[in-house]
Structures are given as structure tokens and as C-alpha cells.
Design the sequence.
């Protein structure tokens, strides 16, 4: 049994054909989607998107002229937000001087910043790119366990126009630069990239700018104040909320988004639990992102998102009220621009919404922001979990399978029919409902007890993943662990049923003769005494439940493991 | 006929880009939303800021540019300036209401999006954004 446990443990640590990586990613997506209803947004983050409609209305193409961006930026600044982040790279000028037609005004970079030059109450964060020449030579990953000890210049100076660099340097007290374009992080969102103060990504740069005013009480600001440069060094696993903020509601047509959060950012426990269970059960059968019902597809993120056309041409007083003292991100959602991010909850979202969700996580969760355990801690957790499942699940499996087996089967079948009913009620496709019924019948006919075992394992690990997330630990390979644990449980089950035990080593094993002398010495690890007592107790239980024998019952099994071929 | 067509096409090609259509008929300047307002050139470039007190309130708007979001107003001094519409309070002609803009789709990508029906709205709850129904046009004789 020890050997089998070791083999399965190694299976968890290895990555054969990238299956472990794929399984980890899928597991985490499922866990993030299921726990999304419990995420409470801060309501302090607003995204403004330059979209196709805005360009059409302005009669402009992309990139948008600096003067047009400047008017939009001025409109944002007039709302008196705490921070504005420009999620647009200003690497090259739009028009080479001298190529403009006669009479056409030049597209000057400072036309972007001149309109906000006198507005000193808002912090401005520019985006700059990381030096790509560091990739593969100096820095293999920007998400290492420890930040690099040496001081490196990480920013690519050419990725921000000289005019903007000069403007920012002259106003360092109210502007800063965040670094983009990291690598080696997978789905993780790095926060600190180096030991220098300014070497941070947009989410942390925005948080630092927001918390610069000393009277902030949010969890992220408290952590930043307490730990300073030591805070937020581990990369973030971005959590996505299932309910958009209530402040967004007056700007959206009814039916576009799912249910809105309450003004405090959360929903009732019953509603969160109901949404979570719906996502879990329906998510098994179909991809809910494609559902036409917003309550299932969850299209709107947990931060306010406004199109730029509404900001420029909507009611200015309403817009200003929304932006007041917020963290505002300006990005683009323009056809042909590939800045999209795959969110586990909302499908594809514009890249700027990733930064918005990240800063919302940092601000609201503070020290409980989700991050990975170290590799050693992950391996230990996997080992402990496998050990628990190896000793608990097979026993439950065997016990359920015995005296009251018909009652247990009935409960299992009822679970499947209840699932089918719930799917139908929650709006799942007819195919999903049909599949639940057919699978339930098939399992009842073939292996009726397994339903309750599966239910137990999924509930244990699902609840475990939610609990881990609650305390800021990223759900690791959730589905992979469930599958490996089930396979492991099925394999070791025979040790608890001695009548089914196969010979070890196998009679035709090549290494068998060499290993056999050692098996006897290791037999004490097979817990013979305990297993024999369990077997005897089980047989007494079976005998008590069985009808009076009509013939001589067979003698109880007395063979030891390894003797019964 | 050919000559007429050629003149028509040539006149179309030679025409300067038209200012995006908008009308300021009956609209007056009611105030500013801040203590200072930005002044822009006709192409939309920022020039300077002036105190809101320099605006001549109650005067009709002189012109507008829908694509830039600018309106031309009179100052107390009699000068005319292009200002950003988003910084001003504008009084509409009697009986008119500002057009409310409602977001019609989410920012994320969802396949085959459809609009579900809404059963009703709780009058005590926060109201959803509703685009006003346009006034019926007068019947033609």
C-alpha cells in the first residue's frame, strides 16, 4: 500500500504530457468560479473603456489622437478620482512630423497631458514595458519565490515617450510609472518585480497611489502601511466576483448584467450559496459562459465598467459622482486590438479589467489576497490529503456497499434525479438534464454506491478549496487531486477486502523473486492487525444482516495478504 | 448629363470634412460644473483654463461640434470660445429632456448574447437605466 501511495504521490508531482498543468489550470478556474459569489468587491474601482462606439462618434480611428485622449482624460480628472491609470502604451508618436497635410493640426503628445496640468488632486499612473532583453538571460521568471537580490533596471525607457517621461519626472509627487509585459508567471499576477520602490506592476502602483493619502482604512492600505516594501511580494491569484457593483446599475440597461451586489459590495449568504451551487452543478455539464442568461454566464465583472462614450456624452454630474475618490483605469476595447484576458468567471475581458480586478483584490482582501503556497507546502498538503483519502474513503466505500446496500443505492439514484431537477430549474440545457438522468441510471445499474463516494470527495475538496481561498491560499490542482485520490482509493480498496486481494508481487513480475524476501519484512506496514479486525467486524455485520443460512456457510477467510492469488 | 455628374462628383471630393451634425437651437448656457473651465481651439486642442465667472450665463449657445464634444459660447467680455460640453450646464428648450445614454452590452465577450425579458422593477429599489421613449412625431397632413 505504501508503494502504491508513493506512486500516486509521484503522479501528482509529475507533469506527464502537461496533463498536470492543464488539470491545475482547469481546477483553479472551476474553484475560482465556484467561490466567485463569495467575493465582496470594494466598489472603489471604475474602468473606462475606449470602444468602437466612442471612436465612431468622434469620427476617429485608432490610435486616438492625443488631443481627443486629453479631453477624455480631463473629463475623468474632473470627477476628482484618487488615481487614474492609463492602460495604453505610449511608445511611438502617432504622426511623424512633416507628413501631415497642410492645415491639419499636428498630433502633439503633450495634447494628452496639458488639459490636466493644473489638476493636482489626482495621481496619474503611466504604463511602461519591461525590458524584453532580460527574458531568458538574466530573469527566467518575474514570479520567483524570492525577489532577485541584485538591483536591475527593469523598465524599457523607450516604451514611454520622452515628453511623458519629462512630464512625470517633473511631477513625481503626483504621477508614477507601472511596469507591464511580465513573463514566467502563468495565470499569476506579479506585484513586486524588484527591490527598488518603483518596480511594481499596475495593481500595486495604483494601490500605493491610492493609499498615499493617510486616512484610508481599507485592508490593502492597512497592510501597506504596516509592512511597507515587504507587503505584497508574492504574486496574486486574481479572484473574480460574481456580482457587479450597485453603483454601475444606473448606467446599464436592465438584463445586460447579472444580479447586482448590495451597496456594501456583497450579497446575502443564501444568494451567494445558491449562485455557487448553481455554478458548481451546472458547470459540470456545460460551459456556462455561453449561456444566454446573465445569471448563469455572469458577463459583468465586480468592478464598474463604463464606455468612454457614456463618460464623454452622458450626464456629467452622474459620471462625476461615480468617479469621485475612485481608482479609475482607462483602457481600450477596440476591434482589432488583442488586449483580452481569459477570466474564469466572465469569459474574455479587456486586459484593463484584469488590472482593475487585481487592485480590487489587493484593496479589499489585504493580507488575505490569494497566493500560492510554496512548492514544499503544496507537496505536503497533497501527501496529507492522499493519506486521509486512502484511509477514509475505502472504508466508507465498503461500509456503504454492505448491509443496507439497496437503501444506499436508492439515495444515490435520488441524488442524480434531484440533480437533474435542479439543472432543469436552474436553466441548464435539455442535454445536460438528460445526461444527469442517464448517468444516474447507469451508475445505479453498474456501481450504485459510487455516487455517494463521489459526492463525499467532491464536497470535501470543494469545501476545502473554498476554505483555502477564504484564507488567501490559491486552490491548487483541485480536479487533478480528486481524480488521483479516487483512483488511489479504488486501488487500495482491496487491502480492506482481503478476499479480493491480489498477490504481491505479481506471480509473473520480473522483479518479483528479488523483491519477495523484502515483502515479508515490510508486511508490518500493511497494518495486518487492524485490517484483520476490520474484516472480522465486517463479516459479523454481514452475517447479522443476512437471512438465516440454508446451507453450511463458508469458513471465514484466514489468508494473509500475498497468499490469496 | 455627363458634365453635370462630373461637376457633382468633383464638388463632393473638394468639399471640406463636414462638422458632425448637431444643433444648439434654443439651448442656453446655464452654468459650469466647476470653478474653472477649459478652453479649446476649433480642432479640439486644449488652450487654457478660465474662471467660470467669465461665462455669460443665460446666453444662447453659438455652435457645437458633436464629434469633439465642444460647444461655442459667449463670454462676459463678448469674446467667443469653444468649451467642453462635459464641463457645462446647458439649458434645453422648454419641453425637451436630455437624451440618456444606457449601456446596452457587457464588456466581456459572450457567445450568442440575447436579451432576457424583465419581469418587473421594484419601485423602491435602485432604478435601472432606461432610455426615454422619443416623443411621437406630429402627423403629416
Sequence:
Amino acid at each position: 500500500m505504501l508503494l502504491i501511495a508513493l506512486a500516486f504521490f509521484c503522479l501528482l508531482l509529475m507533469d506527464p504530457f502537461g496533463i498536470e498543468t492543464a488539470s491545475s489550470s482547469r481546477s483553479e478556474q472551476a474553484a475560482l468560479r465556484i467561490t466567485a459569489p463569495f467575493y465582496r468587491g470594494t466598489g472603489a474601482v471604475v474602468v473606462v473603456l475606449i470602444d468602437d462606439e466612442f471612436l465612431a462618434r468622434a469620427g476617429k480611428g485608432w490610435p486616438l489622437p492625443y488631443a481627443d485622449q486629453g479631453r477624455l482624460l480631463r473629463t475623468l480628472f474632473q470627477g476628482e478620482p484618487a488615481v487614474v491609470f492609463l492602460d495604453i502604451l505610449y511608445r511611438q508618436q502617432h504622426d511623424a512630423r512633416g507628413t501631415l497635410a497642410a492645415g491639419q493640426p499636428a498630433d502633439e503628445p503633450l495634447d494628452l497631458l496639458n488639459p490636466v496640468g493644473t489638476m493636482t488632486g489626482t495621481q496619474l499612473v503611466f504604463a511602461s514595458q519591461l525590458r524584453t532583453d532580460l527574458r531568458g538571460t538574466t530573469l527566467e521568471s518575474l514570479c520567483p519565490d524570492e525577489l532577485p537580490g541584485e538591483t536591475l533596471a527593469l523598465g524599457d525607457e523607450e516604451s514611454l515617450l520622452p515628453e511623458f517621461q519629462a512630464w512625470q519626472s517633473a511631477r513625481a509627487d503626483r504621477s508614477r510609472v507601472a511596469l507591464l509585459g511580465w513573463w514566467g508567471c502563468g495565470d499569476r499576477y506579479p506585484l513586486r518585480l524588484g527591490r527598488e520602490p518603483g518596480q511594481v506592476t499596475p495593481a500595486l502602483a495604483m494601490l500605493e497611489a491610492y493609499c498615499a493619502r493617510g486616512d484610508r482604512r481599507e485592508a490593502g492600505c492597512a497592510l501597506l502601511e504596516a509592512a511597507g516594501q515587504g507587503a505584497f511580494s508574492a504574486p496574486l491569484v486574481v479572484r473574480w466576483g460574481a456580482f457587479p457593483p450597485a453603483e454601475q446599475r444606473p448606467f446599464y440597461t436592465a438584463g445586460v448584467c447579472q444580479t447586482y451586489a448590495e451597496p456594501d459590495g456583497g450579497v446575502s449568504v443564501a444568494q451567494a450559496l445558491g449562485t455557487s451551487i448553481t455554478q458548481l452543478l451546472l458547470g459540470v455539464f456545460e460551459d456556462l459562459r455561453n449561456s444566454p442568461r446573465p445569471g448563469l454566464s455572469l458577463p459583468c465583472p465586480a468592478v464598474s465598467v463604463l464606455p468612454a462614450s457614456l463618460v464623454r456624452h452622458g450626464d456629467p454630474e452622474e459620471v462625476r459622482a461615480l468617479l469621485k475618490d475612485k481608482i479609475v483605469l482607462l483602457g481600450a476595447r477596440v476591434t482589432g486590438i488583442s488586449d483580452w484576458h481569459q477570466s474564469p468567471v466572465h469569459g474574455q475581458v479587456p486586459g484593463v479589467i484584469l488590472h482593475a480586478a487585481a487592485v480590487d483584490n489587493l484593496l479589499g482582501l489585504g493580507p488575505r489576497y490569494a497566493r500560492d503556497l510554496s512548492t514544499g507546502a503544496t507537496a505536503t498538503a497533497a501527501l496529507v490529503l492522499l493519506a486521509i483519502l486512502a484511509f477514509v474513503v475505502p472504508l466508507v466505500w465498503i461500509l456503504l456497499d454492505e448491509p443496507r446496500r439497496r437503501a444506499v443505492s436508492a439515495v444515490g439514484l435520488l441524488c442524480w434525479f434531484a440533480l437533474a431537477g435542479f439543472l432543469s430549474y436552474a436553466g441548464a440545457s435539455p442535454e445536460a438534464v438528460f445526461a444527469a438522468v442517464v448517468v444516474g441510471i447507469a451508475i445505479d445499474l453498474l456501481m450504485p454506491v459510487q455516487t455517494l463516494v463521489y459526492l463525499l470527495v467532491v464536497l470535501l475538496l470543494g469545501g476545502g478549496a473554498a476554505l483555502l481561498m477564504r484564507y488567501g491560499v490559491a486552490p491548487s490542482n483541485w480536479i487533478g487531486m480528486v481524480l488521483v485520490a479516487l483512483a488511489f482509493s479504488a486501488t487500495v480498496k482491496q487491502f480492506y477486502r482481503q478476499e479480493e486481494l491480489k498477490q504481491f508481487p505479481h506471480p509473473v513480475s520480473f522483479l518479483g523473486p528479488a523483491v519477495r524476501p523484502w515483502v515479508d519484512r515490510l508486511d508490518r506496514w500493511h497494518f495486518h492487525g487492524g485490517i484483520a479486525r476490520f474484516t472480522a467486524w465486517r463479516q459479523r455485520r454481514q452475517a447479522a444482516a443476512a437471512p438465516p443460512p440454508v446451507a453450511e456457510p463458508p469458513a471465514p477467510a484466514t489468508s494473509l495478504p500475498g497468499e490469496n492469488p | 448629363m455627363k458634365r453635370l455628374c462630373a461637376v457633382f462628383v468633383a464638388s463632393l471630393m473638394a468639399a471640406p470634412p463636414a462638422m458632425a451634425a448637431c444643433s444648439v437651437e434654443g439651448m442656453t448656457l446655464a452654468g459650469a460644473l466647476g470653478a474653472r473651465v477649459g478652453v479649446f481651439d476649433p480642432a479640439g486642442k486644449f488652450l487654457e483654463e478660465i474662471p467660470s465667472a467669465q461665462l455669460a450665463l443665460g446666453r444662447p449657445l453659438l455652435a457645437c461640434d458633436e464629434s469633439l464634444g465642444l460647444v461655442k459660447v459667449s463670454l462676459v467680455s463678448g469674446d467667443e470660445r469653444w468649451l467642453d460640453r462635459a464641463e457645462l450646464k446647458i439649458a434645453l428648450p422648454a419641453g425637451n429632456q436630455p437624451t440618456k445614454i444606457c449601456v446596452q452590452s457587457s464588456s466581456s465577450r459572450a457567445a450568442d448574447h440575447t436579451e432576457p425579458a424583465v419581469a418587473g422593477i421594484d419601485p423602491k429599489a435602485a432604478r435601472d437605466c432606461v432610455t426615454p421613449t422619443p416623443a411621437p412625431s406630429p402627423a403629416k397632413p
